[in-house]
Specification:
The complex is a heterodimer of chains A (264) and B (454). With 264 residues, chain A is of the alpha/beta class. In chain A, 30% of the residues lie in helices and 25% in strands. Chain A contains 7 helices and 14 strands. Chain A is globular. Chain B has 454 residues and is α/β, with parallel strands linked by helices. The termini of chain B are far apart. The chains are: A alpha/beta (264), B alpha/beta (454).
Chain lengths: 264, 454
């Protein structure tokens, strides 16, 4: 992974029957060979990943994959991370700062409990702004509202980079469009191989079909067809539920099994 | 050859033909005329001594027959199953003038299976170590062939594979019912036993470039990355849910075993009315997979006519037996979807055959006003692949043609870069397993010659 650059991702499999799960690289300690990924337990695979203990191993990890985020000196940059998207903006913010940009990071979550990587985010930018949907910490509202406020005040913004839920990124694109600020978002559509071989991750950008795994995952937010992306991301909702229910009942069974064997 | 009856096999993923019994193999082998000047050998891309191995079967020396096959073909169990014999060795068999040709493919499969099942796979003689290291990029039929040949010549061989399992198209593309994965695995295990090192989940072009591999001590590199970039129709609605590339559909089902979801985590959506676009082997694999995944109606939609279909005769025959419907001279022009983004129907237009095109086949031309709607919930696009750009893009000085294929000498696989060889679909565009193996064979010889000059 020595070659990994900000904006790239890996694909991992937990075990032999496991699916190939794309994960953004949240941090990379090349010296000690430590790759950090951050995930939220939303389905079977992430729940299973969360159930692993220290010392457990994965079946395989492949990467780095995808085109790295283009880093250059833009001037004033704003990095916007929503929810779990806070993790992948961290290395990008760090890289932007390293080449001499003034970097503001806006990170937000539904509430204070769910806010991640506050300290790391603070260290990787010049100015950190926090928001929570319920107002339990920082600005009461969405990250996009914070960005809108900055732009409305007339502050100079040369470049926006953002990762978060698709709805958030769509809202963000609408916020920056009238100001014509160059806005790059990192997408995480459904993938299989991650090397451009299957086309599961196709996304329409500027009326052209792109493969997010190799052409992206970064794209110009003002050109992405968000409606299509939203629909494609929901393709396996039914199967995701089946897999999750199956996993929960297996976990319950094994918990029950363990209990019944406890010495009294 | 005895096989699973169609009504039974469409409900499972087990291999369709059972293979010859010893008795059947003997009877078939005795049909061979053992021609003095056999035409079949010239019809084989890897020049197997066909009468030679058939003779050994006739004599009951099945292990000897397998060894004879392996002298020139590293993958006989695979090729016996997936080669288009009717266009190669069997086409020129002298018997075919009056009768059915000798079933060379079936006999090849028999000998290779016999050896594997007998567990008598002998390790061939390996030449003294040359101290030369060769990197092979891609573990499909081309890469596996090069690996097998070079290791026997005494070179040190490492195979890099992007996916988590070695075998390339043999594991992600060709379904279990046509090529059981255990067979591919045993071929890979055999090479590993000979000393070939396999590095899976290793994307050359991303993790390391070709130049990095040279820098880390490899003396020569073979690129056999295949035609891994799916073509789409480029017509409206193609990104609706329910429309897959054949690569994705087959990878989910074969490599990721989505047919046994949720025991395996990877899901697949395969509906009740499935149309597969294309007329090649990949299209047949896809449409027959769709039946096994529960389709009520499975169609091949092909813009030319039956005679132009490039698929193996056997595959077309099997598909027909299993109830696949063929819509020839039909081309989709638009996909219609539901509000929430799912495929609802496909608008098609009738075609007629016009003048021959550059491929020599009559070019299909649309019949004005013949549009009609086909109700389908799943479409699988199997109209071929382009070459994956990951390696060419990251290798300065490596020439490619206008289709993105690597330019290589057809006799040696030599590319525009010194010490870099290439073969298989990355050079020819989507072709067959045996042509890739044949290219691998030639490249191995050329690489060996090159290594001797160092």
């Amino acid at each position: 992974m020595e070659k990994a650059k900000p904006g790239q991702f890996v694909i991992l499999r937990i075990d032999e029957p496991g699916e190939r799960i794309p994960m953004s690289i949240a941090d990379l300690d090349k010296k000690n060979g430590i790759l950090t990924i951050v995930f939220q337990e939303v389905g079977k695979s992430t729940a299973q990943l969360g159930s692993l203990k220290e010392g457990d191993s994965l079946a395989d990890v492949v990467g780095p994959l995808g085109t790295p985020t283009h880093i250059e000196k833009y001037g004033n940059c704003v990095c916007v991370g929503g929810g779990i998207g806070i993790a992948p903006i961290h290395p990008v913010a760090k890289a932007l700062k390293e080449v001499g940009n003034q970097v503001t990071s806006i990170i937000g979550a539904r509430n204070k409990e769910l806010l991640i990587m506050e300290e790391e985010s603070r260290a990787s930018c010049d100015n950190l702004i926090i928001s929570t949907d319920d107002g339990s910490y920082g600005f009461h509202g969405f990250v996009t509202q914070v960005l809108a406020g900055i732009l409305e005040k007339g502050e100079k913004v040369d470049f926006v980079f953002s990762v978060g839920p698709v709805l958030m990124m769509r809202a963000l694109a609408r916020v920056t469009l009238p100001y014509k600020v160059r806005t790059i978002i990192s997408l995480n559509p459904i993938m299989v191989d991650g090397t451009g071989m299957c086309g599961a991750c196709r996304v329409t950008v500027g009326n052209q079909t792109k493969f997010a795994c190799v052409d992206g995952p970064d794209f110009d937010a003002h050109l992405v067809d968000f409606e299509e992306l939203l629909k494609r991301q929901r393709m396996y909702l039914k199967e995701e539920k089946v897999a999750m229910d199956n996993f929960i009942s297996k976990m319950d069974q094994s918990a029950h099994h363990h209990q019944s064997h406890k010495p009294s | 050859m005895p096989e699973q009856p169609p009504e039974q096999r469409v409900k499972n993923f087990k291999e369709v033909p059972f293979g010859y019994t010893e008795e059947l193999a003997k009877i078939e082998s005795q049909r061979c005329l053992f021609c003095k000047k056999p035409l079949c050998i010239a019809g084989c891309p890897v020049e197997i001594d066909i009468p030679g191995f058939i003779k050994l079967i006739a004599e009951g020396d099945y292990i000897g027959a397998a060894k004879k096959l392996k002298e020139t073909n590293s993958l006989p169990a695979v090729c016996g199953r997936v080669c288009p014999q009717e266009d190669q060795c069997e086409k020129v068999c002298i018997l075919s003038k009056k009768y059915e040709p000798v079933a060379i493919g079936n006999l090849e499969r028999f000998a290779a299976d016999y050896e594997r099942e007998a567990g008598e796979i002998e390790i061939p003689k390996i030449e003294k170590s040359t101290g030369k290291k060769v990197a092979i990029v891609g573990s499909g039929p081309a890469g596996l062939t090069v690996a097998g040949d070079l290791i026997k010549m005494g070179h040190q061989v490492t195979v890099f594979e992007a996916l988590h399992k070695a075998g390339g198209v043999l594991v992600y593309g060709i379904p279990e019912f046509r090529l059981p994965k255990a067979i591919v695995q045993s071929e890979v295990d055999y090479l590993a036993k000979l000393g070939v090192e396999f590095k899976t989940s290793y994307v050359v072009g991303m993790l390391q470039t070709i130049d990095d591999l040279f820098a880390s001590g490899y003396h020569a590199i073979f690129i056999g990355t295949g035609a891994g970039l799916p073509n789409f129709m480029k017509i409206p609605g193609e990104n609706l849910n329910g429309i897959y590339s054949a690569n994705e559909y087959l990878t989910r089902s074969n490599l990721m075993k989505a047919y046994s979801f949720p025991e395996n985590d990877t899901p697949i959506f395969s509906g009740k009315n499935v149309a597969v676009l294309g007329g090649g082997n990949t299209a047949m694999d896809s449409v027959r997979t769709a039946l096994r995944l529960g389709a009520d109606n499975a169609y091949i939609v092909y813009r030319r006519s039956r005679t132009e279909m490039p698929a193996r005769k056997d595959e077309i025959h099997h598909a027909e037996q299993e109830g696949v419907k063929f819509d020839f001279l039909t081309a989709p022009i638009k996909f219609h979807g539901t509000e929430d983004g799912w495929l609802k129907s496909m608008e098609c237009i009738q075609m007629k055959l016009g003048e021959p095109d550059e491929s020599g086949r009559r070019r299909p031309v649309p019949v004005e006003g013949s549009n009609y709607i086909m109700d389908v919930d799943t479409v699988i696009v199997a109209i071929g692949n382009s070459s994956n750009p990951l390696v060419p893009k990251t290798t300065p000085g490596l020439d490619i043609n206008k289709w993105g294929n690597i330019t290589a000498d057809p006799e040696t696989g030599q590319t525009s870069r010194r010490g870099v060889f290439a073969g298989g679909d990355i050079v020819t565009g989507g072709a067959t397993v045996i042509l890739a193996a044949g290219a691998g064979k030639k490249a191995a010889r050329a690489i060996d010659a090159y290594l001797k000059t160092l």
